[in-house]
Input
Amino acid sequence: MIELHLPLLPILIPLVGSMLLLLLPASWRGPFALGTMVVSLVASSRLLQVVATTGTALVFHAGRWEVVEGVATGITLVGDWLSAMFVVMSQLVMLLGFVYALGCGDKVTGYGSFYTLFLLLVTGLTGTFLTGDLFNLFVFAELLVLSGTLLTAVADDKFGVEAAFKYFYISLLAAAFLLLACGGLYISYGTVNMAQLSVALAAETTPLALIAGGLLLATFMIKSATVPFHFWQPDFHAAAPTPVSATLSSVVVKLGVYGYLRMTTLLFVEQAEILQTILLVVGVVGVVFGGLAAIGTHNMKRMLAYSTLAQVGFILVGIGWGTALSLAAALVFTVNHALIKAAMLMLAGAVASRAPVKSADFEHIVGVGQAHPRMGILFFVGAMGLAGIPPTSGFISKMLIFNSGVAGMGYWSLGLIGVAAILTLVYTMRAFMRVWWVPAEGDLPFKRGDRLWAPALLLLGVVVLGLWAEPLLVVAEATAEWIMKPDPYVEAVLGLVP
Amino acid sequence: MGALLVWVLRKWMPITAARGWLLSIFPLMSLGLLGRAWWLVEDKYLSWSWAWVPAANLNISFYYDALSALFGLMVAGIGVLILIYGGYYFADDKDANRFFAYLLLFMGMMLGVVVAGDLITMFLFWEGTSITSFLLVAYKYKYESARKGAFKALFITGGGGIALLAGSLFLGHIAGGYDFKTIFSQAEVIQQHELYWVVLGLIAFGAFTKSAQVPAHIWLPAAMSAPTPASAYLHSATMVKAGIYLLARLNPALGGTESWFWLLSTVGLVTMVTGAYWGIQQDDLKGLLAYSTISQLGVLTFLIGQETEIAFKALVIGVIAHALFKSALFMCAGIIDHETGTRLLSRLGGLRQSMPITFVVVVMAGLSLAGSPPMFGFLAKETLLATAVHPTLSTATSWLFVLAIVVAAAFKLVQAGLVIVDVFMGEPRDKGVKGHEAPWGMVMAPLLPALASMGVGLLPNTAIVATFFGKAAEAAYGDKVKVSLALWTGINIPLLLSMGAITAGLILFSQRSWLIKREERWSFNRVYDGVLGGMDRLAFWATRTQTGYLRHYLAVMMVAMWVLVLLLWRFDWPTLAPFELFDDTRLEFDLIRLVSLVTIVAAAVTTIVLKRDFGAILALGAVGLSVAVYMAVEPAPDVALVQIVVDLLATVILVLALDRLPREQRRAAQTLQSQISWLRAGIATGGGLLVAGMSYMALSTRPRVSLVTPYYEQSAKALTGASDIVGAVIVDFRALDTLIEITVFSLAGIGVFTLFRWAARKHGDHEAAVANRMEPSLAALMQFSIGERPVSAYLQAVVTMVLPVALVIGGIHMLYGHEQPGDGFTAGVIISLAIGLWYVVFGFRETRRRLWWLRPHGFISLGVLLVIVTGLISMGVEGYFLASVDFGKMIGLPLPEGMKFSSGFLFEVAIASAVVGGVSLILDTLGRPAALAVQIHRAAQAEFDEAEKMDSQ
Amino acid sequence: MGYFTWIVPLTLLYVGLTANAEGLNWIVGLLLATLVTFLMRPEVKPHGIDWWGRAIVSGTRFVVTLLWDLMVSSVQVAGLVINRDIRVHQGIMALPTKHPAKGITVLSAQAITLTPGELVVDIDDEGTMYVHSLNVVAAMESEPAAQAKRVAQLEALFE
Amino acid sequence: MVLLTSIGIGMLFGVAIYQMLQRNVIRSAIGIILLGNAINLFLLAAGSQNGLVPAYDKAKDVMPDALPQAFVLTAIVISMGGVAVILAMLYIVSARYGTGDLDEINGLKH
Amino acid sequence: MIVELLAVITIMVATMFSVIGVVGFRRLPDVYTRLHATGKVGVLGVVMLLIAAVLVTPLVWSKALVLILLLLVVGPVTAHVLALAAYELGIEMKEGQQDDLQGVFTGITAEKIRLQDTSEGVKRGLFE
Amino acid sequence: MSTLLIGTLYFSLAVHTLLIGYAVWRMWRGENRIDRLMGFDLIGTLILGVLVLIAMIEETSIFIDVGLGLTALGFVGVVALARYAVAGEVE
Ligand code: NA
Ligand code: NA
Output
């Protein structure tokens, strides 16, 4: 029975945990939430393991509303290579977000509902990955949006509310697009089950479905902060409480990436070419724009947020090339970026917490690092990871992306992102120098700040994955192979060979 | 390895010169190993490979042949000396452990580069050298020049690294593998490939940046802010040779083509001449040496470009000769700097007496630099000239080459002169500069290479060395190269040219005051600054797009969404329904639809045109009610009911929120919407057209067939016991949606509460106002907020009754949710709105006193958990989470007709509980009188401060 | 026991709304009404059986009077509205409840307001109702008597 | 009716977008609520309009599609939650920035 | 048949009441007088519709009855609330012949609020 | 159901629907805020009438349930709005 419910458990466990937290005394909440995350991660890892061993998708028909005469009657949760991989990745990073939160001096972590909101964020994200139903995806996405908004709105940062407010507004637009898309697809095909839609869309694409496709694409672009739908992101990720912002900019934006992958490989396979071209263009624009903006901005967290635009740009380029090799590369990039970006944002938060004025503005953190050389080592490793310098896993991702471009003959885009890649080096190293090398004006007393366990663990992972990339690559390649054709997914869900 | 050890042992490391001796064990070991390895392989190669990432076909492999050995031995050998030297240099610097760690790390990386067996492995180490170089240059990071130099070096070599990576990938792609053996075997294929020029360009770019070729050379002088041992090691002897090594290594695969020849020759010669010229313009001793290095690197690049045996002979000799004399010179410069406190030529002078040994060393090394016999440098120059006059070259080319080489050689002689004469001869230009001899070990370190430089020159034809050099050259050349190290090869053209160069150099040196300007001139630094400046400007403009105006963002997104839709859709219309005013079989329904649509649109437009917010809110409520009418006609009573409920709830919440907004602000805000913005209107029209178009398509393609709904219609009653099919979908077929939906709703409640409790009192803005200024008018405030004004007994009595009635209605919605419109959600909203009405009429405190059971957080938690528990019980019964189970039937509970004690019922109760919790929290917080909010804030603050105090203890 | 003044009407409400008169539904309704009453904890005093009898009688009479008033004066207002020349003699007059029980004030206010042409605007702490009337002169004459009649009808409920 | 319905829904959506782009915070909040209404109307009108009697068991005639109705129900509830949160945030933002003008709520830029 | 005829008449009368309610809303001079038309005549229309519904269709009479009672309670009290609000706002009667409430009104008047707004409004602005 | 009855129902439905339109107009062009609020309240009442009429035409009490919700909540809404109209609204 546990096996059967595996695709459900990573959603259910944090949800139950979040609600139980409301009933617990304040001092228990943090550790309990962490424990919940551990259990949840165990479940999701097990899911991935089962997927890996069986080589097919685990499908859970919620409420036993199964497939009747080829029609999915209820909501299906699908743990396939792609979703399981994304879930494990995000829950791992989320777990470390909780670790960071426990050692974090932000007032927000002491608020009664902080961990509840955080666990609901996990629930929402996990749900969007695991669901096989487009409308259900909308519902989970709303959970995700709302919890993220609230977490940021109550952040210690005085701009938290503004950032959250803007994000939420824009997310409402995204929700409207997604609902319109759901409506368009349902009206065209009478179903919102993704496998079913895949079959139907392959048979015939109605004009309405095409419009829905455009709206769906816009939705995912908002979710992954793809240029020009990115405006909320720098504000939001910079203002969020550090443990949250670390997970937002690393894994939550990957919802969009997941969406693109599902769109191009499952739903709109017929239209994959134009979709990929669009992604390629916005990806390249993102790499250049994100890199430049990261150089030009005034705050370290903000810099890292802009950096996410660029890094997601690389991923989009990988998806845009659309070969098995480039998809695998994009997946590897996705995971590595998640770890690195989370670590970097945590470090940015840790720096801010040690600054005389709690802020990640560069003007406030100049020289703050000099009393904290160990943090500097961590940051340097992270910077190398972002810039794709060995022996970090960032190198592996960059190399794989470049390599897939070489093999896939995406020369002009490769050229552009290659040139833009140097921007990463510029902003990371400048930030490093500002904090750790430039002497501070006046004496900076040694100040305790947020604990560094979480970023240290993440960066350890970054280095380990840089030195021993094989397992990740195997998973990524298996995933890429799995999603290259929609048939296995459809077969697993509907139990029929299309 | 060594670096790690340094870090581990940093506590116990002696802060004396002995540190250097101790650490020199590591390069010594490497030296021994490499030498030993060389004996083992003799004239073949040694290779080893390990499947690093099989999934991506990546290996870690090593390839050790004479060329590797040549560079490797050089790296290790000079490394020994540098460490010993560095031990003295940093004799009393506690911090220097960091330096040694970096240096050893670099050494490892550099050795890795030269023994790497494939492009990827090489790249790994290549980047390692860039990073360690960055760290070493910025060793004195508190100085801006150090940081700038380090960054410049990293920026340029990092950029080259990206090019190299791309080039390597292209090369590997063309050759079908990254390892050198494969690549060599595919030389033909590579050179014929249409992407050959791409590969060549990228790899050469990588190599040029690393080896400081013009115009990428500018990082090298800037990197002179590194401590001298690092400069001597990285920036003359080893790292800068990495590019040379790379080109030499790949020569068999890439070399021999026209483009190779011209690219390398041109760049090499330009670098050679300009480096030599700029060298003599330097005031800083290290700057001079740096430019001299650049010049020498140009020479080496040039040589690789040639496709002759003699060139490769010249290459190996040049590499070693340069490594020897230049590291010696650098170390001496360091000694001078260390002992006198300055390295400026304009201040130094007359150090001959005070630093005799150093003087001797400098003379030996300087002569080698000048290329005069009997030094090794002479040999290097000779072979170089021999290359230039090689018969395979066309005459014009040959003369051009020769001219360049002679000019450069003359300049180098001037450089040597400057170093020897200006520093050691005559009188100090600055009287305050006094020198004394350095410790013997420190002087010994440069002495050894200087001696070696002379030794190789004086003891020609040393069989072993010559063979070794020959093998190395052969590895690069790809064919047999015979190297003879004879100094005197008879009077030939190279010798004559050499003499000419020396003469020219001497003349120039004597006239140096005319030649040397030493002032700011145009250099490629301007380009670098321009590039960085341009990048910063672009970056500035990139961030300006983030205007901070939400409506800009929304507008851009709307437009972008349209573009995306158009890209996919491309105006592909289905067959559209013709215009018919009424098409329902029942006219009156269409009439209601029409009227409600008109009402909807009219009321919606009213929300724009009304000046006052209050009227706009009323109009908004009317929109919602009209939508409900449309829905009722659908006929969708369930939806209509919820629409009504939610519309009224939204209206209430809106006015409550509005009531809390400051009046001044609202008054100001109301004046904002006076004129119509056409851009806004255009975007709105765009959105409207899209949705209208979608609706038109959707309605035109009716009737469509739903795949799922027929199943629901048939089996709702049978499988879930529900007559209300929509209700069955909500609590049974799509129960997961509903579970998450109520979680979202509850979350909204928790959120509003959390926001008011925490976010509203950040940064003193709220709190200050609350604590200081509000106190006197607390009572007045109580009166003026909606909740706490006295109302008539009549209204009180009616309102009192509303709540029990609402509870009963809510109860019915839950009990009969699957039989009639209404469900747990409507029950929850009705109940909580009635509670809200109590707040409005009785005030917050009185309400909370009387409704002792109202615990919103608990309601939320219990609600969601009840769903989950129900789901789990179903799981126990049916084996599936959220399965539909009729518990009443199971336990034989007698119930009235139409009522079910099923999972669906528990679901409804749970939904109601969560919704009551959520809405109560919202109304509590929004509807709570402001003054009371103050007290609650204060209580929360106290509680929080307490918690903080506990935390800090 | 006083709670039955709540439980009974609520049960009736339940059964009315569910429109299911079977015994089991009455039981469910009773349980629900009890639960609701328990949650509300109204401040009520216990009544004897005789009170229930009187309450039903006078309550019914009150409602019937009310409906009749409603019909009659609706027609009057309708006539007023349709009349080409609308002429109102409006005004607000004070009307004391003449009974200390708050319940009587409330029910009187309800009755007055339900009657078209008259509308309670406010009630002060002494139970004086301020009635807006379309024809204040006429109302000033008739209302005190009508109010006395209402008090007489309702007195039995609030002793 | 097909065309008129479409135009009606489109206009509602357009007004919603127009309001969302307004500077007055209250109007933009109204825009959000209108947006929800427009979407729900679209889902219901376009998604299920082909029934004659409510979707209840043993209906005597053609029922409208129940699934879009369920979607709309869910969407309504969710957007309601969103509205509550946005209003609360609006309150806090405008308190902190001392303005009811969205354009003045721009502490975060560049 | 008789019942049906009765129903038809009831519906017509109800419709008439609804129309009269709205016409009154249109024609009566001020807020207070209009409340008599909308708040009660209009409600009566719906009540009669409900009665008609019970007469002619197999609708559940008990539900209709509950709804009627609810309307009879809620309709007047709504009118009362609106009238009070109007009075509080200081909206004056058109050609009012008598106002016993003037001078004794203890609630808040718009006047007071306006005062509050100018003298102490800043505080409120700060607070909220 | 006889044609007469059905005709009456349709007639009444049409009248009520049109009255709603007037009420909306009134809400737009009200004299003062109470006037608008009255318009709003009137919309609620008329919609209830429409619901009852639909219930008669459809011969189902489902719409009465909807009407019940409308009545109960409409009251709450109007009371809250009225209280707000006095204390909260700005000129
Ligand atoms: Na329902
Ligand atoms: Na229902």
